[in-house]
Amino acid sequence: MPQTVAHRSVKSFHTFGSELQHTLIFQNFFNVALRINATTLILFSHLFIDNDKALIGFLVFLIIVTSVALLIVIYKIYILRYFLYLNVVSVVDDEENLLPVEPIAAEVLLEAYKRKLADEGRLFLAEFQSIPRIFSRYSVKEAKKPCNVPKNRYVDILPYDYNRVQLTTGNGEAGCDYINASFIDGYKESKKYIAAQGKAVIFITHSDETVSDFWRMVWEQQSSIIVMVTRCEEGNRVKCAQYWPSPQRETEIFEEFIVKLNSEDHCPDYTIRHLSLTNKRDKNSEREVTHIQFMSWPDHGVPEEPHLLLKLRRRVNAFKNFFSGPIVIHCSAGVGRTGTYIGIDAMMEGLEAEGRVDIYGYVVRLRRQRCLMVQVEAQYILIHQALLEHNQFGETEITLPELHSTLSTLKEKSSGNEPTLMEDEFDRLPSYKNWRTFNTGITEDNKKKNRSSSVIPYDYNRVLLKLDEGHSRESDPDEDEEEDSSDEEEEESTKYINASHINGYWGPRAFIAAQTPLPDTMADFWSMVYQKKAATIVMLSDCSEEDKSDSVYWDKDKKTFGEIEVEVASTDTSPTLITRNMLIRHVKRKESRPVKHFEFLKWSSAELPEKPQDLTDVIKDIKQSCGSSKSQRSTPVVVHCNDGSSRSGIFCALWNVLDSADSEKLVDVFQVAKTLRKERQGMLSSLEQYQFLYDALEGVFPVQNGEVKAPQASAAIEIVNETKAAEQPTEKKEEQPAEKKEEQPASTTSNGQQEAAESAPLVPEAEKEVKKEEAEEVSSTPTETTPLEGASNGPTVTVEV
């Protein structure tokens, strides 16, 4: 028992002894009264010896008085015991369920995670449920004052009095020093963080009171970083008021505080805002505040990729200042997501400093400083997963200024037969072999639809192709035909095609990676293009190969495949690319859709293109053709090669790392490759493919005068319009054989690519099939329950996360 609890218990027992002493005096008085009553009885018995009725009445009176006195004594004892329970036993209950969980060394972190994950995550559940949600010894009197109640968004999430953030200035009114925020200790540093609730001004009042209090807190605590782990609206619910200026209104005034938006940088997972904060009372002391809003926390559950939170941590730490105050972190309630981020940041610091982590002990410590921190079991597991991610794979992110020096280090060969650092990095890639089911693609009816038996789409992200019969003349041409669930009923109403949804840098399902259609599946291929509203097709297979002679799925003019009519309107040719402008139309509908078809010519039978620049230039041209607006990104790019993985994986990976380089000025080839391996079998399975991505980046961002040179616009590609080629047959067509003459076959690699991938370590969180998580990914109906993710099948908890 902790010393504070023991002290409290002893004090309570002293109080109980004092109260009990008063009770004993009362009992002695009662005994004296009984003796007096007995004497009186003897005396009055002589008086009433001849009057039996009077004697009986007197005895009844004495019995009633005695009974009442006895009941009073019993009630007094009960009250004392009740207060003893409140003062002593309840304090002990806060602590008695805690488990003796030992810190975990970095070397055994994976084994410990697997052990806790076993048996449907029972150890995780037991640990999490043993931590008190609220420590009752700490009072919350200030938060419950009538003047402060409107400032709390949730009635049960209140800061403890002993470590709440107190505002030192205000308007002099009662409760003006209160804000729903708590100081939180870091791994070693006291009051490193401030955990706060989301600004609730919109929900409670029509004033900017809580927003001005928030900025007052930032000003007084000299905080220079704000981490917001929520969107303002999620699932049609307002989670937090916008307390910063919008780009349209660069400046907002909240009482005496002037907040100005200097710049705003948007990335897929987060937005960084550079703000200026000025106090009207001291206009000369303008302060810079960095606001980082994490956008990739799903409405329910936790982020699927733990490395996203590690990436967020790197962004936050890049802005840390030794002289700045606590880091302000908030979500909606300031406990769930906020506690999870703080737990990851603090435990990462401990892992790097001591080589071990005490996640359980730190979460207990968090709950002692703010109730309900790390609110659900899924968040508790996520802390373990994030630390495991870092411990297994390290930091693989490279900024563009460091690109060439880092690549030199990665490729440098050491003495002897030691592998290079790049080979080590590639070997750390998890294989994800059979980490998800692919039952649909291996049924007897569907086996013949696969070109390769080793590349079958996973069930969780395979493209669901609706039956042709579902397309009627009356159907709405604009209806969203994307699959929104993986229910058995919907599965039965779909056809199989060897194609997978692939996530892009800017969002999910940016690509469809498919095998080159077989003669029997060409109609299905065009149905997929039509149903998924794809406007771009990238062909990476080589039509010149003998075994690929059946891969041409269009005609020179017009041809119907199943219920889709395909017309080639025009064809443009360059040395590296053939661009076909097509029109596709459902035979039961009048409207046609434009589709651009790009055939890459510089990829022969070799595993890799001879020149990485050829592929990067083509990607830039396709991006320019597709457009970069949000609406243009919403339609997938269909990429196909022979098996839908070997070449398609390189294309998707290079597209994503180039997007990252353009947006954030950094690349993470390892994480891109790891993600693609989870999405489709056979992607980036060889070291040569992995190194090709680095070589391509090195060519896109060359070094000039010791600095990385920004990529220039690619030279204009000379284009021949084949529809007019008959009229101008001489000059440009003669150039193509010369270009082909310069091509040299790229060196091939060993055929043991799959074996190399299988030997890579398996990421632990992918070892179990999480059906509930799959349902969340595709469910279109928002729900208020937060499932406990990971491997645990524990109860769902209705919470505000």
Automatic annotation (TrEMBL):
Low complexity composition-biased segments: 778-789
GO molecular function: protein tyrosine phosphatase activity
CDD domains (UniProt xref): R-PTP-C-2, R-PTPc-C-1
Compartments (UniProt record): Cell membrane
Biased composition (Acidic residues): 476-492
Enzyme Commission code: 3.1.3.48
Domain Tyrosine-protein phosphatase: 124-390, 422-700
Spans annotated as Disordered: 468-495, 722-801
Composition bias, Basic and acidic residues: 729-744, 765-774
PROSITE patterns found in the cross-reference section: TYR_PHOSPHATASE_1 (PS00383), TYR_PHOSPHATASE_2 (PS50056), TYR_PHOSPHATASE_PTP (PS50055)
Enzyme class: hydrolase
Membrane-crossing segments per the record: 29-49, 55-75
Family matches, as InterPro entries: Prot-tyrosine_phosphatase-like, Protein-Tyr_Phosphatase, PTP_cat, Tyr_Pase_AS, Tyr_Pase_cat, Tyr_Pase_dom
Keywords: Cell membrane, Glycoprotein, Hydrolase, Membrane, Phosphoprotein, Protein phosphatase, Repeat, Signal, Transmembrane, Transmembrane helix
Gene3D superfamilies tied to this protein: Protein tyrosine phosphatase superfamily (3.90.190.10)
Protein name: Receptor-type tyrosine-protein phosphatase C
Organism: Sparus aurata (Gilthead sea bream)
